[in-house]
C-alpha cells in the first residue's frame, strides 16, 4: 500500500516530470530484460544502411506476413507463387503479386 501511495503522490506533485522519469525507467528495464541494444542512429540516417542484405529479407518477410494476413482475413488462397485469389462477396478476385 505504501508503494502505491508514494507512486500516486509523486505523480500528483508533477505529472509531466513523473511520466518522463517513469518512461525512461521502463525503457531501461525493457533493454535489460530483452538483452537488446538500441540502434545506431547515425548509421540509420544514411541510405547505404538500408541497402544491406538483411533489409531485403526484412521487406520480403513484411510482405509475406501482409499477404498471409490478407489470406486469412479474406478466405483467400494462393494458386501459384505470384497469383492470389481473394474471396470477395460471391466472387473470387485474382491478384497478381510480384515479390
Question: Top keywords for this entry?
Answer:
single chain, 99 residues, 2 domains, 3 strands, 59% helix, 14% strand, Bifunctional isocitrate dehydrogenase kinase/phosphatase
Task: Please characterize this protein's 3D structure.
The protein has 99 residues and is α+β, with helices and mostly antiparallel strands. It has four helices and three strands. Strands 1-2-3 form a three-stranded antiparallel β-sheet. A hairpin with a 2-residue loop joins strand 2 (83-88) and strand 3 (91-96). The protein starts with a helix and ends with a strand.
Brief digest:
59% of the residues lie in helices and 14% in strands. The protein is of the alpha+beta class and 99 residues long. This is Bifunctional isocitrate dehydrogenase kinase/phosphatase.
How would the blueprint of this fold be written?
Blueprint: H1 2-13, H2 15-34, H3 41-44, H4 53-74, E1 77-78, E2 83-88, E3 91-96
Antiparallel strand pairs: 1-2, 2-3
Helix pairs in contact: 1-2
How many DSSP helices? 4
Percentage of β-strand residues: 5-15%
Average pLDDT score: 74
The 3D shape can be described as elongated
Number of individual domains: 2
Organism: Echinostoma caproni
Protein name: Bifunctional isocitrate dehydrogenase kinase/phosphatase
Amino acid at each position: 500500500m505504501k508503494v502505491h501511495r508514494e507512486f500516486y503522490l509523486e505523480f500528483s506533485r508533477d505529472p509531466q516530470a513523473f511520466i518522463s522519469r517513469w518512461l525512461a525507467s521502463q525503457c531501461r528495464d525493457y533493454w535489460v530484460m530483452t538483452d537488446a541494444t538500441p540502434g545506431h542512429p547515425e548509421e540509420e540516417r544514411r541510405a547505404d544502411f538500408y541497402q544491406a542484405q538483411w533489409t531485403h529479407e526484412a521487406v520480403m518477410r513484411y510482405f509475406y506476413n501482409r499477404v498471409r494476413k490478407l489470406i486469412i482475413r479474406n478466405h483467400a488462397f494462393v494458386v501459384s507463387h505470384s497469383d492470389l485469389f481473394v474471396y470477395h462477396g460471391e466472387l473470387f478476385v485474382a491478384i497478381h503479386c510480384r515479390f
